[in-house]
Design goal:
This protein starts with 11 loop residues before the first helix and ends with a helix. It is an all-alpha fold and 104 residues long. The radius of gyration is 15 Å and the shape is globular. α2 crosses α3. Helix content is 66%, strand content 0%. It is built from six helices and no strands. The chain has one domain: 434 Repressor (Amino-terminal Domain) (Orthogonal Bundle). The longest helix is centred in the C-terminal third of the chain and has 23 residues.
């Protein structure tokens, strides 16, 4: 994997607005929508408040909404692969930290 472009910014509030808008368009509660996406309702709540989540959760939401990941993140960057790479690297960092905490 190449170097991460540190200039890439993910518009989490934009993602939050799109997810909330689609959920409301479908006339679903957070609980119902989260169940359909196979994610925890508290995670959905955090997403809708503009906090980031794992790439897996974004993929589940995009899959349920039948949109691409690029559509979900709103195309706010021209290179969706760079955003995916950034999300993967953040997830990898979290996994590394979790492993460190598990070691005696």
């Amino acid at each position: 994997m190449g170097d991460i472009n540190n200039d890439i910014m993910i518009d989490y509030q934009g993602i939050a607005d799109r997810v909330r808008k689609e959920r409301k368009r479908l006339k679903m509660s957070q609980h119902m929508f989260a169940d359909e996406c196979a994610i925890d309702r508290q995670i959905l709540s955090r997403i809708e408040r503009g906090y980031g989540t794992s790439l897996e959760n974004y993929c589940r939401i995009a899959g349920y909404l039948n949109v691409t990941l690029d559509d979900l993140i709103g195309g706010q960057v021209s290179d969706a692969a760079s955003v995916i790479e950034e999300l993967l690297m953040k997830s990898l960092d979290n996994i590394r930290e979790a492993i460190k905490l598990m070691k005696p």
